[in-house]
Amino acid sequence: MIRKWIWIVICCVYIIGCSQRIPLEKVSLILLIGLDRTPNGDIKVGTSIPLFHHKQPKSTIEHWTQASTVYTGFSKIDTKLTGFMTASKAEIILIGKKLAQEANWLQELDSSYRDPYATINAKVVLV
């Protein structure tokens, strides 16, 4: 009898994990992130997102916005997109010349390092 209840609990745990699936067509995966400083002191945040819809002729979408922080920039870009946006698969982070000349440019990436779903092995390229 106890084994039966243990199997029921184990099956329930596995079934709960299957309910949070998100179809790939409804996800905006950010593969490239671009950051630079504007003349007025804001951060210019850019993203490149591949499209998985076969009906559209373009294979990627680029979004640019200006914000006070990187996190605020991602929030602004998220409002423009439909579906679930995630930067967890970002492969490359481009740092612009004006931002790279600052002494504490690495602190601008702090919000992405604190994100539990973000990858910390993205390649950082200074341009």
- Report the top-level CATH class: Alpha Beta
Q: What is the total domain count? A: 1
**DSSP summary: helix tally:** 4
The residue-averaged pLDDT reads 82
Name the assembly state: single chain
Classify the secondary structure makeup into a structural class. Answer: alpha/beta
CATH architecture: 2-Layer Sandwich
CATH topology: Nucleotidyltransferase, domain 5
Tell me the helix content. 25-40%
Q: Based on CA inertia axes, which overall geometry fits?
A: elongated
Please report the distance between the alpha carbons of the first and last residues.
65 Å
Number of beta strands: 7
Low-confidence stretches: none
Order of helices and strands: HEEEEHEEHHE
Radius of gyration: 19 Å
> What does the largest sheet look like?
5 strands, mixed
How is this structure best described in words?
The protein is built from four helices and seven strands, in the order H-E-E-E-E-H-E-E-H-H-E. With 127 residues, the protein is α/β, with parallel strands linked by helices. It has one domain (23-126): Nucleotidyltransferase, domain 5, CATH 3.30.420. The chain has a five-stranded mixed sheet. A two-stranded parallel ribbon has the order 1-5. The termini are far apart. The model has no long low-confidence stretch (mean pLDDT 82).
